[in-house]
Amino acid sequence: MIEYRTIRVGLLGAGSVGSQVARLLLEHSDELTQRIGARIELVGIAVRDTGAKRDTQLPPELLTTDAESLILGSDIVIELMGGIEPARTLVLGAIASGADVVTGNKALLANHGPELFAAAEQVGAQLSYEAAVGGAIPIIRPLRDSLAGDRIDRILGIVNGTTNFILDRMDSTGASLEDALATATELGYAEADPTADIGGYDAAQKAAILASLAFHTSVPVTAVHREGITGVTAQQVESARSAGFVVKLLAICERLVDDETGEEGVSARVYPALVPRSHPLAAVHGANNAVFVEAAAAGPLMFYGAGAGGVQTASAVLGDLVAIARRHVIGGPGTAESTHAELPLLDIGRITTRYAITLEVADEPGVLEQIAHVFAEHGVSVEQLQQTVSGAAERATLVIGTHEAKESALAETVAALAQSPVVESVASVLRVEGAV
Amino acid sequence: MIEYRTIRVGLLGAGSVGSQVARLLLEHSDELTQRIGARIELVGIAVRDTGAKRDTQLPPELLTTDAESLILGSDIVIELMGGIEPARTLVLGAIASGADVVTGNKALLANHGPELFAAAEQVGAQLSYEAAVGGAIPIIRPLRDSLAGDRIDRILGIVNGTTNFILDRMDSTGASLEDALATATELGYAEADPTADIGGYDAAQKAAILASLAFHTSVPVTAVHREGITGVTAQQVESARSAGFVVKLLAICERLVDDETGEEGVSARVYPALVPRSHPLAAVHGANNAVFVEAAAAGPLMFYGAGAGGVQTASAVLGDLVAIARRHVIGGPGTAESTHAELPLLDIGRITTRYAITLEVADEPGVLEQIAHVFAEHGVSVEQLQQTVSGAAERATLVIGTHEAKESALAETVAALAQSPVVESVASVLRVEGAV
C-alpha cells in the first residue's frame, strides 16, 4: 500500500460550479489520488451562509464562513465565488500565503488579471483559470501551451451560452428577442437579471481574457468594444436566414496592422454579427459555446462544447487542480503568464469588417444614385444591393452588403445615410464575420 | 538587454514537417525567445542524405547524417523521422543522455509508447507528442491536462485526413472509391502507396495513442480492431446519404463494462461507420480532422482542425517545444504519462453498437419472417426494416437497421443471414455510431 502525501485544497464558494467541484472531489477521491500521485483533501468550503439551501448535499462540517483561515490551511485554493471583491483580496491573500490558485472568475481576471499574474509570478505560484472561458471546453490551456509556438491571428468565439440559446431560438423558430429570452429564462439558461449576458458584458470579459492570452498583451475589459444583442430583431434574423447567414454574438480578438501607425495592434470586441451558414460557428446550437482560432501555422482550429453548467464547468476546474497538484508532486513551479508582446490596443474604428445595411427609402428616381454616392464619398465599396418595393406605396427596402472597409468609414457611412433626405430609416446594421 | 541562456535543440528528420519546424524556429527565433525566456538554438538537423532535394531551403551547415552526435549536443531532441527504427533507438538514446524529447511519430508511440514513457519517467525527462494525433489540433494536451480531473467515457475521432477526403468526396460527388482515391492522390492528399491510410493502419495507431491517454491504460496498436475503407462502395455512401447519414472512418475509444466479467474495460477500434448528418462529426469535410470526446462531467467536446500538412503539424511540434523549454527555464521535470488504471483491453466482440445491413433477398412469401427469425434467434432487435423491390423480378432489397446489440451477436447474425437460403447476398454491413 502506497503512503500518499496529502495536498490540502480549500474551496471558496459553493454555487452551481463550486458545489459540483466539491462533490466530484469527494466522490472521485481515489481516482484523483492515482492520477496525481498524492491525496487531495478538501479541507473546507467557504460560503457566506453555512445554513443556506444548496442543490448538492455537502458535508456540513466542511462549510465555514471564515475564508481567511481556510486559505491559510490550504496548499491549493479554488476560487469560485465570482465578482471582484472579496474574491480579489482572497486570491491575492492565497498567493501571498504560498498557495496555488485555480479560479473560474472571469470578472476578476478581465479586470485585475495583470495584478494577479504578477503576484503569482513573484512567488512562483501557479494560477490557472480554464473554467473562466468556455465552461468545460479546454481553450485556455490549448492557447497557452499547445499554440505557444504558433502565432495566433484571430479568434472568433461564441462564448456566452445564454445569448447563443436566444439567437439560435430566434433563428430556428422565428421568435422575437423577448419571447426567446422568456424561453431561456424558463429553461434556466438565463438569469433573472439577464443584463450581463444579453448586454454582452460576460462575453466582453471573456474576450479580454482570450485576447490577453492569445496576443501576449494585457487587454483589460475596458478596452473591449461591446455591443449586446438587445437590438437584434426577428426581422434581422429572418433576413439573415434568407441570405444564408445566421446572427451570432461573437467575441472577436484580432491581431492587425494599424494603417495609421504601420504597427501591429490588438482589437478585442463583442457584437452580434452575421456568420455564413457554411462556417463551423454557424452550427453551434443552443447554449453551447465554441471558439474558432486562426493561427499562422496551424490554420483554423475549433474548440466546441458546453459553455456553462455546474458539473461541466467543474470539469475544467478539476483539470486545473490535477495539473497543479501534479506539479506539487514532481516539483517545480508553474508557468508564468506571458505579456511580453504588449501590443497596442486598437479602437474599434481601426478594424476592418463588412456591413449588411437595411434601409427604408423613398421609391423614386435617383434614390439609388444618391445612396451610392454616400458610400462612394466615404470610400466604402458596395458588394451587393437588393431592392424590394414594399406593399406601402412610394417605399422600398434596400439591403446593401459592403466589401471590407474600415469600421470608422462604415460607421460614418451609416451616419450619413441616416441624414440623407431619401432615407426614411436605417432599419438594420449588422457586421458580417467569418466569411471565407 | 537581457542575456538569455541558450537551449540547444537537435532535429531528427527534415521531411514535410521537420523542414517546416526548422524554418519556423529560424524565422521566429526572437518571438520564441521572449515567450520562453531562453534562446532556442537549432544546433543541427539529422537527415539520411544531406544532398537530397527539399521543399524548404535549410541552412546546409545545419545538416548532418550523424544523428547520434547531434543528440549528445542537444538539450531537447525533436524526432520527426517516422517509422520505428532508428527512431526508437535514437529517442531512447536522447532520453538516456538527459535530453527532453518532442516526437510526432505515431507508429513509434503506438508500438513502443510504454517503453518510451518508462524511460522518460525514470530520468525525469519530458516526452511530448501533440503532433502524433490530429496534426495541428491540440488534443493530446487537452486530454492529458485539461480533462485530467474528469472521466473520459468515449472518443470518436476522424483522425485520418486522406480517408476523410475520399469519403467526403464520395459523399458530395457520388464518386467511386477508386475515383475519389485518384483525386486524393492527384491533389496530394494521398501517398503513392495509400495502404497506411485507406487500410486504417494510420487511424489505428492514433486510436491506440488516444485510448492509452484517455483511459490511463497501455493500449498497443495490436489491441486495436482495424477495418479500412477499401470495402466502402458508392452505393453504400448513397444509401447512407438518403437515410440521413454520412460514412466516416472513425477511431473509437470507449470505456465500457464487460458484461461477462462485470468489470470495466477499454475498447479501441477503427472502422467506417454511419454517422447521423446532425452529428458534429458529419460536418468535418475534406482532409480535416476532428476528435469528439465524451467526458462524464464535461459532456461532449469537439476539437477540430487540420489533421495533416507540414506547417500545420509543425505548429503542434513547436507548441510542445515551447512548453518543454519553459520548464527548462523555470525548473522542475515534466509530468509523467499515467497508466495507473490499466483497464483490460476488450475484444471487438464485447462492444455494443448498431448495424445497418443491406440484403438482396428473394421476393416471395415468408422471406421476411425467416429473416426476422435469424435476428431474433441471435437476440438482435430490429429497429427498422425497409424493403424495395428491385427492377429484376423475384428480387428485393432489404435495408435493416438494428437496435444496439453486442458486436459478437451482430456478427453472428450477419453470418447466419449469409447462410440463409432466402438471402441471395449480404450487400452491405455498416455500423452506426454517434447516434443521440
UniProtKB/TrEMBL annotation, chains A, B:
The keyword Acetylation does not apply. NADP(+) binds at L12, G13, A14, G15, S16, V17, G18, S19. GO terms for molecular function: homoserine dehydrogenase activity; NADP binding. It is an enzyme of class 1 (oxidoreductase). Residues 356-431 form the ACT domain. NCBIfam families: PRK06349.1. Catalyzes the conversion of L-aspartate-beta-semialdehyde (L-Asa) to L-homoserine (L-Hse), the third step in the biosynthesis of threonine and methionine from aspartate. Belongs to the homoserine dehydrogenase family. This is Homoserine dehydrogenase. It comes from Agromyces ramosus.
